[in-house]
Each structure stands twice: as structure tokens, then as C-alpha cells.
Design brief:
Elements: H1 2-11, H2 26-41, H3 51-61, H4 73-80, H5 82-85, H6 90-93, H7 96-112, H8 117-122, H9 132-140, H10 149-152, H11 158-167, H12 180-193, H13 200-223, H14 229-252, H15 275-293, H16 301-305, H17 315-318, H18 322-341, H19 372-589, H20 594-639, E1 642-648, E2 662-663, E3 672-681, E4 687-695, E5 698-700, H21 706-721, E6 725-732, H22 738-743, H23 748-763, E7 768-780, E8 783-786, H24 791-794, E9 801-805, E10 810-814, E11 819-820, H25 824-837, E12 840-841, E13 849-850, E14 853-864, E15 870-879, H26 886-889, H27 894-918, H28 929-933, E16 943-950, H29 957-985
Parallel strand pairs: 1-5, 1-16, 6-15, 6-16
Antiparallel strand pairs: 2-3, 3-4, 7-8, 7-11, 7-14, 9-10, 12-13, 14-15
Helix pairs in contact: 1-11, 1-12, 2-7, 2-18, 7-14, 9-19, 12-13, 13-14, 13-15, 18-19, 19-20, 19-29, 21-23, 27-29
This protein binds adenosine-5'-triphosphate (ATP).
Biased composition (Low complexity): 294-308
Subcellular location: Cytoplasm, Cytoskeleton
Main location: cytoplasm
Amino acid sequence: MERSENTTVRTGIRPPTNYSTGATAPTAALQEMTDSQSNARAQPTTMPPPQGVKRLAQGGQLPQPEPKLRKTLADRAGEYGPSNKSHLPSAMATPAPTRALYKNAQSLVATSLLLPPGTIASSRHTSNFSQAPRNAFATSIGPGSRPPVSSMNRPSSSIGFSQSTTTRPRGATRSRPPTITTDQGTNSEGGQGTQQPNGTKPSLALRTRKLRGTASMQSLSCQAKPQGKQEKSDILGLSKQLRDLSLRDEDIFGNPKGDQVIPKQDGQSLLPPPQLDAELDHVVQQKCQKEEASSTPFSSPGSSQSKPVPWPPKTPSRTRDPEAALQQLNTLEATVKDFLNTPVSPVKPSSPVKQSFLTKHTNLRNFTGWDVDERLQTLDSQFKAMKEVMDSSITDKKTLEDAVELAKTRVDDLERERLRLDEKNRILESDLKASQAQVTSLTVALETEKRAHKYAVEDTSRAHRLELDELRRELKDETDRLQRSHREALEALERHCRAELEDERSQKSKEIQEVRAKLGSEQQDMNLALLGKDREIQGIQSQLEAAKLNLDREHTIKGTLQQQIGEMSTTNLGLEDRMRALRAQIDFLESDSKQQSDSFEEMRSRLEEAQRSEEEARQKLIHEETERRLLFNKYQELKGNIRVMCRVRPVLDPSEGDEAKILFPDLKTSTQIDVTGPEEKSSLGNVNRKVVPFEFDRVFSPSIHNEEIFGEISQLVQSALDGYNVCIFCYGQTGSGKTYTMSSTDGMIPRATHMIYDSINKLKEKSWTYTMEGSFVEVYNEELNDLLTPAKDAEGKKKLEIRHDDTRKQTAVLNCKSVILDSANKVESMLQQAQNNRSVAATKANERSSRSHSVFILKLVGENAATSERCEGTLNLVDLAGSERLKHSGAEGDRMKETQSINKSLACLGDVIEALGRGSAHIPYRNSKLTHLLQYSLGGNSKTLMFVMVSPLEAHLKETLTSLRFATKVSWDYFTIQTRARRLMI
Ligand SMILES: Nc1ncnc2c1ncn2[C@@H]1O[C@H](COP(=O)(O)OP(=O)(O)OP(=O)(O)O)[C@@H](O)[C@H]1O
């Protein structure tokens, strides 16, 4: 394809295959051809528009191109297109010097055509003779002209021409080898026929024009060489003139280098390399030198292979103007005619030795004839073909013009689009600028707003700070004010309280003085009253004697009544027998007389009377029971609500040690005990042992058993059944027999419960029903423990709390287990359980030393259905802890703490009894748990019995004396109370 294009370009003339019969005569056609050669020489006409053209374009017919930077397609089309070429002035299209030179060239051609036919024939390429158009063309210009070798290889189809002129891609830039032949062929038509958008074509056309001029001159010089040196010099001069012509043409177009500077897109010019002309001159000179060296220049094999310098120039392809082409044809026809009229020079005979051939590559001999008619016919046919070509060229031209017009329209559209886009771009730029300005203004506004906001925040924070400081100051002031006011109020209140306290103190002192004075007078009155009370006591004692007599009488009456009841029961049985007998008798006498009915009525009345007597006797018995209770309580009170008894245990084993000297002087009353004290040295050195006598309500010797002892306390148990609170203590040192007396199997507790059961059963006859409920607690280290609950089960339980009912004079222990004692067996198991849980610790004094106070609480509640009476009494059986002194026991640590708490509770018990004896208004029950628990069983109408337990051993003598003295003190206090009570009774 490339090769085809190149060959087409080299030819520059349409192949005559499509040559049609032209309208122009052959002669005229030859003349036009000659002219076309001249036009072909006038390359500047196809050059890019010179300055004049540019000025014309600037005149308004064409859009003004941007110099070098932006050229529209229309601009480029105007510069290089054939339409612009038509605007060129004729003077510029064909400069005068060029025309003169071409005239010289035509004369030279004519001279060259006068060469001998053999010389011309030898220059033909007979091997390619089959290519008629080229061969015809070669013959059309005469044998003196050297046909272009390169054109012989070119396909002579019109397709190549079309490609070179119309169908070649506008943007395609084909590289061309920098050879003379290639450039020559390319430049022969490319500069005119093609319109390359990149502008390389005009540059190549200029270069082709130079080459053409130079090569033609070289060729001419070479061909003219055989004519002589003068001709050679003429040819060289003509070559120079052509070169100068090219230069001048270039000067005309304003380019000193001979090429128009076509700006590339990158701004670089596409100037041909400056050494190209020198190379072409060098090649032509070398070729001429070779031809000079050869003897037969036209038959030289290299001549046919030499550089294909086209001659004559391919004018038809270079000009697009058909009229000019026709003119060229006419010129060519005229030239042919001149040639035919010119006489032929004789042919130089060849050497007989050396045969000459057409070329060195063929064995054809030299031409021997010249058929002019045939040549003319050939020329005529070529002319016709050229005519057809020209017609087709005209058609192509019109098509191209249409295409150009279309391109212009497109260019205009594009230009309008560009303008629209430019306008849009300007609008967008203006918008952008406006947006930037807006952004700037917004940024400024934002900055301003930020600053304003910052200032506002700072102002606000400053205001808040100030406000906070102000609030703090106010708060501080308020706090100070409040503190001052509070301090002042406190001071005023303190002053007021002090004043009130002073007033109260003075008032109280006055009251104390008054009370003291009053007490003095009362004491006198009391002494007087005491005397009266003594008398009353004596009276009461007499009443008591009388009451005893009454009681005995009542007992007698009771026995009589019981006897009467028995008798009445017997009588009742007899009456019932009699009733049955009477009924039988009634049945017997029913039918009898009135006597029988009277007898029946009498019997019935007697029966009713007997029943009434029985009811009266029962009512009397109930009444006597109530009366008995009152008399029994009065009797107990007369015997003393508080009694102190002493019991001395026997020596269990002789190994226990010596027995102390304890005497019981009054065996009849059993109220005294004499204890021989320890040895004491007198001031004279005599050792004496004092006998210390003690007197109690009852003294039990070691031989007395529990049964007899219970006989003494059974009356108190009866009082508990009668609804009174009874408290029985066992006091004494460790090992003195307290537990034995109280809790042993035949101790007071079991006996008391058994007695209570018996009494309850008996009282049922008197319409009394009882409930008995027992509990067992322990006071250890001033704390209450439930002995009926094992220690492990007591953990986590609530502590025992003492609650007093002041109305009923009853005490209850909260959170303490109580057992309903509905049988005697339950009491024994309860005692056993309590004994196991009781805190027992070993001390030096006793291995089984009880270090706590145990309290057996038996609550008795009785109700009489006949009389609706109700009684509620409590029997407290207390086994006190050992009363030994600390020094003697040798207790340490926890034992010492136990002992201290034991001594404290015992001391508190003594204080309570002392207070009760003194008749003090305040009884210190709450000083210890024990007295607090037994509050309603100590004092008042309660019955209290204290057993002081005594060891018979000499070793325990001191403790024995201490215990006896404590009991005596209590006894005396009780005595005081009893005395007072007796006085009150009197
Ligand atoms: N009247 C008595 N007849 C026979 N044995 C007695 C008598 N009194 C006490 N005993 C015996 O003496 C010992 C000590 O008696 P008991 O344990 O009752 O003394 P205690 O005062 O209760 O001592 P603690 O204060 O340590 O409980 C016991 O073995 C007991 O059986």
C-alpha cells in the first residue's frame, strides 16, 4: 500500500488507462502539456498561501486564524486548499523569474529531444515495456528525456491517485525515506493533491520543488554533457538559477529558509533538514561524474537505474485546476508539434567491434526506426486518457470542493461550538469567579461570625465568671450570716438554758429543803404511826390468831360439809332407791287412792330439796375455796412474803476435809444456826474462836432431806397456783448444794411441778382449770440464754429480751422457748435438757462449778368456770451461781470476768432487797439482768424465799460466814419489810 502510494505520487500524472476522447485537439493538448510543465515549475502557486493570501483571509472572507497557536480547519483549508490557490494573484502564482527560467528549460528540453534516436532508445526500459502508459509517456516526451525509473514500478491505476488526493486520511502522516527518489516522487504531487491537517505537505512540496529544480538541473546537465562543455555549463547555470528561483520563491513567501514554517502542535517548526539540499547536489554531482566516466551515457546500465528525477514535472497532479491542466496539455501538444517539425540529427554510427544494446540488462539492439505517426497516435490516446483523467479530476475537484464546503460547514459548526463553549467557559469562569468571590465573602463572613461568636463566648464566660464570683460571695456572706445568727442563737439558747437550769436548780434545792423538812415531820409522824402500827400488829396478830381459829373452824366446817356431802350422796342414793321404790309404789298405788299421789308429791319435793341442798353445798364449797385463797395468802403474808432459810449440806466424803463447827441450838423451832468462826488472836495473844449465831425463818440441818424442805416451800407453790408470783433462790458458794436442792431429781422444781399437777387435778372439782407453761433461762455474763435451745441452734437467733406487763405484774422473755407442761414427764426432760445446755466450767473450787444463774420459770394460769375467776401466777426457781470471792477462787481471765459478773448480779440482788427493806421509792431492778428478770417476783405481793446454802467443811468456813451474813442482811431487810407490812396490817 505504501509502495502504491509512493509510486502514485512519483508519477504525478494520471495513467492514461482511463483516458477518454477529449474535447481538445491533440495539438492543443500538447501545447497545454507544455504549459503545464511551466505551471508545474511554478510550484509557488501550490505553496501555502503567502502573506498576500493571509491578508486576503484577514479581509473577512476567511476566519482569522490565531497565529501559530490556534488554526481552525477552515484556516488550514484556506492556506493549503485549492480554493485558496485560486485567490492567488497571477503574478504571484507564476513569478517572472520562474517563467523565464522555464522558458530556458523548455528550450533545453527541445534541445534534448534532438538527440539521436538510438540514444533515446537506449534510455528506454524495454523490460518494462509492457506498461504502456509509462512507456507512452516516456515516448511522448521524446527519446532525449529520461523516463523516471521509479515510475515504471508504480501501478498505473487511478486508485493510487485517488488515494493520494482524496482518500488519504487527513491525519495520517506517513514517513518517507529521505532518498531523492522517494522525495522526488512524493513531492511531485503530494504538495498539491493532499491536504494534510498537520501541515507537513506544504513543507514537503517546498522541499520537492527544490529537489525537482536541482535534480532537473542535474539531470539536464548530465544529459547535456555529450553536447559539449558549453551545454554542460549552461545546464549547471540553469540548475543554479532554478535553485536561486526556489530561494526567491521562498523569499516571496517570506521564508528565508525556503520552507514555510508550519507550526506543529508542540510549537516546533517542520523545516526540512538544511543538509538535504547539499545531499541532493552531492548525489547529482556523483551521478554526473559517473556518466562522464562512461563512454555511452544513454546506454549505461546505471542510467536506467539512476535517481528517478521526473522530467517533465508532473504538473497535472500538482495543479488541481482543470483549465490549467488543459492548457498544459495544449502546451504539450504544441511542443510535440514543434518536435515533429524539427529536423532529426544524424545518428552516430556504432562501432563495428562493439555492439551497442539498449541497456546492459537486455539484448535488444538499438532502434533502427522512428515511427512518428505511431507516437502521435499514442500521444493522442494519452491525451484522451489525460482528458478523461482531467474530467475525473474535475469531478473529484467538485467532490472535494463539496467536501471542503462540508468541512467548512463543519468547521463553522465546530467554530460556533467552540465559541459557544468559549462563551460557556467564560460564563463558567465568571460563575467560578463569582463563586470564589462568594466563598471569599462567606469565609470572611464566617471568620467575622467566628470572631463575634468567640467574643460572645468570652463575654458570656466572663459574665458567668463574674456571676459565679458574685454568687460565691453571696453564698459566703449568707453562710457567714447564718453562722453568726446560728452562733448568736446558740449563745442565747445557752444563756437561756443556763438561766433555766439555775432556776430549776434553785427551785429544786428549795423543794429538797421543803421535802427534808416535810420528811422530818413525816418521820415523826411515822414514828408515831409506827407505834400505832405496833399496836395494830398486835391486833392483827390477835386477828391472825382468830383467823387461824376461823381457818381451823373452816377446815372443820369443810370437813363437816364434805362429810355432809358424802352423807347427802349416800342419802341421794337412798333417795334414788326410795324413788324407785316409790315409783313402784306409785305404780302400785296409781289406781289406788289419793294417798298415794300425796305420798308421791312429798317424795318429789323432798328430792328437789335435797338437790338444792347439794347445790348450796357446792356453791359454799367454791366460796370457801375463794375464801381459803384469801386467807391462805393472808397467812403467807403474815408468815412473810420474803423468807430466808438456811440449809447445810452434809459432808459427802471424809476426804473433803475437816468439818466446820456448826450448831443448831433450837431444834424445836429450827430457826437458828451457830457457826464457830475461825481462830482469832486477841491482843493478849490468846487464840479464840467466836461463835457467830444466825437466825433465819428456818434452818435445815444436814440431815434434812428435800422432801421436808419442799414442805416448807409447798405453801409458796400453792400461792403461785393461787395467782401470786413466787421466787425461790438458792444462794451459796460453789459446791454448797444449790443445784442439789433445786434441780436434783427430788429437788424443788420436780416436786413443785408434781405438787402443781396434783393441785390442778384437785382444783378441777372446784371448777378450776389450769395451764402450765415452763421455760428455762440462764444469766451468764449479764446476758440471757435459753437453756432449752442448744447453743448451736441459738446462734443467729434473736437475743432474749425481757418484757414487763405492769398491769398484770407479769414478766415475759421474748424469743425464749417455752414448753407446755401437760405431764410430769415433760418437766424431767426439760430439766435434763437445761442441765446439758447450762454453762459449766471448772474452777479450783469445784470441778462442776456453775458460773451462771439459772432461772426456771413456771407460769400458771387458772380459770374458774363457775365463778369466772382467773388467776395468773409465776413460780421462779433460781439456782444462783457460786458466791465465792475472787481471791479464793483464783479465777483469771474469762473466769474472772464471769466471777465479777456473778458478784455484781448478787450485789445488785442484795441492793434490791435492801431497797425493798428500806421501802425505797426506787428499787434498782435494772442494775442487773437477774433483778430485772425477777422484778415482779421481788417485792410487792410476791412471795420470795431465799435458801442460803452452807458447806459443812472447815475449809469453806469463811465463805460460809460471808454467805450467812449476806443472808442475814437480806433477812433483816425482809424483816423490816415484814415489820412494816405487819404494821400496815395492824
Ligand atoms: N443435802 C445434800 N445431801 C446429799 N448430797 C448433797 C447435798 N447437797 C449437796 N450435795 C452434793 O454435793 C455436791 C455439790 O452440790 P451442788 O452441785 O448442788 O453444789 P452447788 O452449790 O450447786 O455448786 P455449783 O454452784 O457449782 O452449782 C453434789 O455432789 C451434791 O450431790
